[in-house]
Specification:
single chain; 22 helices; binds flavin-adenine dinucleotide
């Protein structure tokens, strides 16, 4: 039997600080990577071209990384449930290793693959928690229940010691020429471009693909911007956040590496403000984990509202309003700026994600699931757990004990885009309109008309009353 181990990459497109890959290398020097382009995912109707473009770029870089350390990354295209065990069998691999994932689809797929590998007597190692610092079983309440509220989760989560990064893959061996031929016959093919797969993205990428770019961004952020994160993170016109979300989604950087950078920054901190800012960023990483744990423990979250009050909520069906929201034509400058940032760059600032999600659900009274899907169709960092968590939080339908929260677009603009810089950047037709009009949202009709900018499609005051009324009715009924 050969000592070949196939390491199946999924959301861990890197060879550094990768727990499953390090475990594979500890067992054998002959570790070969494999990635399977899964049509069941790629053919869904919520896949963003920008996300696929970034992912393919990361796979290219990963192939280079493997080559640098003496091995290779193989590409398969098809249903992994069949393709992965078939490749392992054709190559007489000793084992297939991978890292575990929280998403319901991945869990089901992995269980099927485990059964097939068992039947073929191929060793597997799958339950490495690599993309999170603590497993969903580890962070539990006093009564051993998963948390449904963030603050106690955070207290527990931060009190636990965190692992150091694991060793980078080095001195590995790839396939022999004969094995490469066998691999080809088992379906291994060249890495296609995003275009080959039918995804066209002509815009730029907020972060260059690959480990080196993610690592450089982490270093840049944790040695500088992190110290002002507390003050700057809410201003969409400012580059005050890490923009590492796509790298974290695809595991282009290891979470232990990220954590270590934050603890290093804490050690270097010389003021209470800086320490608080770093802590706040750590809390964002914990939000990411909170939502992943929630998805693992309550997979029904993926299908809709968590709270009963929202299970049969009388949402509006208004295609025109929904389209106006998608295209950034609502007549509310901050909402339109944010939606245009999403459409044109494939990313949106967190403050604006909250504003537009509140607007869709509380002003347009449209089902958050439509917004959640639209985000997935556009975001470079689109991630089931974080996106679902963000939408359920904004719609008040999720794990959030706070009473119904409604964002007023004008007061959000006054606080977070007081000079209307962000609005002017994205809603270009409003560039020469007075700041006070843009910030208040009350643009005089003549100026609106001259700029070719639409009237507000709804009245915020009336709509929020509508929402509250419906909410009260549902609450009483449920
Ligand atoms: P930073 O502020 O630098 O934060 C660091 C990292 O922490 C992020 O990269 C991200 O991994 C994590 N993080 C930060 N805030 C959150 C949060 N509220 N929830 C979960 N993780 C967080 N994030 C995604 O990664 N993918 C999504 O699909 C997604 N959809 C969202 C939808 C809505 C409606 C809302 C309100 C938020 C959503 N978020 C999502 C969370 C957040 O907006 C982004 O993670 C953040 O804007 C990414 O920018 P950054 O990397 O500069 O973040």
């Amino acid at each position: 039997m050969s000592d070949l181990i196939l390491f199946w990459h999924r959301r861990d497109l890197r060879i550094s600080d990768n727990t499953g890959l390090a475990a594979a290398r500890r067992q054998s020097a002959k570790v070969v990577g494999v990635f399977c382009l899964d049509p069941l995912i790629l053919e869904r109707d919520d896949v963003a071209p920008v996300r696929v473009t970034y992912m393919i770029g990361c796979l290219q870089k990963l192939q280079q990384r493997y080559a640098e350390v003496g091995s290779e990354l193989l590409i398969l295209h098809g249903n992994p449930v069949e393709k992965i065990p078939a490749l392992a069998q054709a190559l007489s691999a000793t084992g297939v290793f991978w890292n575990w994932d929280v998403e319901p689809y991945s869990q089901e797929r992995d269980r099927t693959i485990i059964n097939t590998l068992k039947e073929k007597s191929i060793q597997f190692l799958s339950q490495n928690w690599d993309q999170i610092l603590h497993s969903p079983e580890e962070i539990r309440s006093g009564s051993n229940q998963p948390y449904t509220v963030y603050t106690p989760f955070w207290k527990n989560w931060i009190s636990k010691p965190k692992s150091e990064p694991v060793e980078t893959l080095e001195n590995a061996q790839g396939l022999t020429e004969t094995e490469q031929e066998i691999a080809k016959q088992a379906g291994v093919e060249a890495l296609p471009s995003a275009k080959d797969l039918g995804f066209i993205w002509d815009g730029g990428l907020i972060l260059s693909p690959g480990e080196a770019a993610a690592q450089a961004r982490l270093e840049e952020f944790t040695t500088k911007a992190i110290t002002e994160y507390q003050e700057q993170r809410n201003f969409p016109a400012v580059d005050g956040t890490s923009q590492l979300s796509a790298a974290l989604k695809f595991g282009v950087i290891g979470i232990r590496t990220v954590w270590q950078a934050t603890t290093q920054a804490l050690e270097n901190s010389r003021s209470e403000e800086t320490t608080a800012a770093i802590r706040t960023w750590q809390q964002e990483l914990a939000w990411r984990e909170f939502y992943q744990h929630a998805m693992y423990n309550f997979p029904e979250l993926a299908d809709g509202a968590f709270r009963d009050t929202f299970k049969n909520f009388p949402w509006e069906t208004n295609e025109e309003h929904f389209q106006a929201w998608c295209e950034g034509r609502t007549g509310y400058p901050i909402v339109d700026a944010a939606m245009r940032q999403l459409n044109e760059s494939g990313w949106m600032h967190n403050r604006c994600r909250m504003i537009v999600a509140s607007f869709l659900t509380k002003d347009l009274l449209i089902n958050p699931q439509l917004g959640e899907k639209y985000f997935m169709q556009k975001l470079i960092d689109g991630d089931l757990s974080a996106n679902n968590g963000g939408w359920q939080w904004s719609a008040s339908s999720g794990m959030d004990p706070k009473p119904v929260r409604i964002f007023n677009p004008a007061s959000q603009t006054q606080k977070f885009d007081p000079e209307a810089e962000y609005i002017r950047q994205w809603v270009t037709e409003l560039r020469s309109v007075d700041t006070q009009y843009l910030v208040s949202g009350k643009i005089p009709p003549l100026e609106r008309h001259a700029a070719g900018y639409p009237e507000p499609i709804v009245d915020h005051k009336i709509q929020q009353q509508q929402f509250k009324q419906r909410y009260q009715q549902q609450k009483t009924a449920s």
